[in-house]
TrEMBL record:
SUPFAM superfamilies: S-adenosyl-L-methionine-dependent methyltransferases (SSF53335). It comes from the Bacteria. PROSITE patterns: N6_MTASE. InterPro entries: DNA_methylase_N6_adenine_CS (IPR002052), SAM-dependent_MTases_sf (IPR029063), Small_mtfrase_dom (IPR007848), tRNA_Adenine-N(6)_MTase (IPR050210). Signal peptide: none annotated. Keywords: Methyltransferase, S-adenosyl-L-methionine, Transferase. Residues 34-179 form the Methyltransferase small domain. This is Methyltransferase. GO terms for biological process: methylation. GO terms for molecular function: N-methyltransferase activity; nucleic acid binding; S-adenosylmethionine-dependent methyltransferase activity.
Length: 258
C-alpha cells in the first residue's frame, strides 16, 4: 500500500499568500504564474477568470494584489482543482478566500456545454491563461499529472482564446504567457475577437534569446499590434532578478498596458 503523495505549501508575494502544490510531480507554479498575474492592472471591482488554473497560483496572485477583484479558477483536472480548493482554505489565505472560487471545467467546451459548465458568456472583465506549452516533439514525461498540464494539442490556442472571447465582456482584457514559438498561433487565434495586441518578449539576460512572451489584447478592439520593450529577467552576470521583474514577481507592481 502506498501513502498519499506528498504536498508542499509554497509562499508567494513574500508570504502574502500560499499555494498547496504536489511535490515532485505535476505542474508546479512559479515565475510564469506571477508574471501572468502582473498583467492584470485594474483598480475596479472586476471579475477575473483564470483558465487552466492548476493549483491557482496566478489567480490567487491577482486577488492578493488587487483588493476589489473576484477570481474564478477554472481547472479540468479534478486533482489539481482539489489543490486549488485546499489552497484557498489555507489559514494564511483567509484575507482573499472570500473572493476566490474553483470551477472544474474543460475550457475547450463550446456553446451550451461551455455555459452549463460554468463558463458563462460575457461574465468576466479579465481572462488570464498559461496554456500547456509542450508540443509533440518535446520529450514525454512519465508524470501523468504533469503531462496533462503541459501537453499542447493542435488548435489549443484557438479553443482557449475562443472561450476567453465568449466569457469576456466587450472591452475586456485577455492576458497570457507562452513560449515565443507560439506567437503566430496566438495572433491567428485572436483574429477578429481581440485587437490591440501588446507583446513583450522575456529574456533571461541581455543578449540572450527570449524564453517567454507576455501577450495582452482587448475584446473587440481594432487597434494595431504593438511590440513592447523586452523584459530582461536577471541583472548582468548574476541570477538576481532585475528590480522591475522582482516587483512583478512579488506583487508590488502591475505590468500595465501602454
Amino acid at each position: 500500500m502506498t501513502g498519499k503523495p506528498a504536498d508542499t505549501i509554497d509562499a508567494f508575494h513574500r508570504g502574502a499568500f500560499h499555494v498547496v502544490q504536489p511535490k515532485g510531480r505535476g505542474h508546479r507554479s512559479g515565475m510564469d504564474a506571477m508574471l501572468l498575474a502582473a498583467l492584470v492592472s485594474d483598480d475596479r471591482a472586476v471579475r477575473v477568470a483564470d483558465l487552466g488554473s492548476g493549483a491557482g497560483a496566478a489567480g490567487l496572485a491577482v486577488a492578493s494584489r488587487l483588493a476589489d477583484v473576484e477570481v474564478v479558477l477554472f481547472e479540468r483536472s479534478s486533482e489539481m482543482a482539489d489543490y486549488a480548493r485546499r489552497s484557498i482554505l489555507l489559514p494564511g489565505n483567509t484575507h482573499i478566500a472570500g473572493r476566490v472560487s474553483v470551477v472544474e471545467a474543460d475550457v475547450t467546451l463550446t456553446a451550451k456545454a461551455r455555459n452549463d459548465a460554468g463558463l458563462l458568456d460575457e461574465s468576466f472583465h479579465h481572462v488570464i491563461m498559461n496554456p500547456p506549452f509542450n508540443d509533440a516533439g518535446d520529450r514525454r514525461t512519465p508524470d501523468a499529472l504533469k503531462a496533462e498540464a503541459h501537453a499542447m494539442t493542435d488548435g489549443l490556442f484557438e479553443s482557449w482564446i475562443r472561450t476567453a472571447g465568449a466569457i469576456m465582456i466587450p472591452g475586456g482584457q485577455l492576458s497570457l504567457i507562452a513560449r515565443p514559438q507560439s506567437i503566430a498561433e496566438i495572433i491567428d487565434a485572436c483574429g477578429r475577437r481581440f485587437g490591440g495586441l501588446e507583446i513583450t518578449s522575456i529574456h533571461p539576460r541581455d543578449g540572450e534569446n527570449a524564453v517567454r512572451i507576455l501577450v495582452t489584447a482587448i475584446k473587440g478592439s481594432r487597434a494595431r499590434l504593438s511590440l513592447r520593450a523586452a523584459l530582461i529577467m536577471h541583472e548582468e552576470g548574476s541570477h538576481k532578478f532585475s528590480p522591475l521583474v522582482d516587483d512583478f514577481n512579488n506583487g508590488r507592481a502591475a505590468y500595465a498596458r501602454l
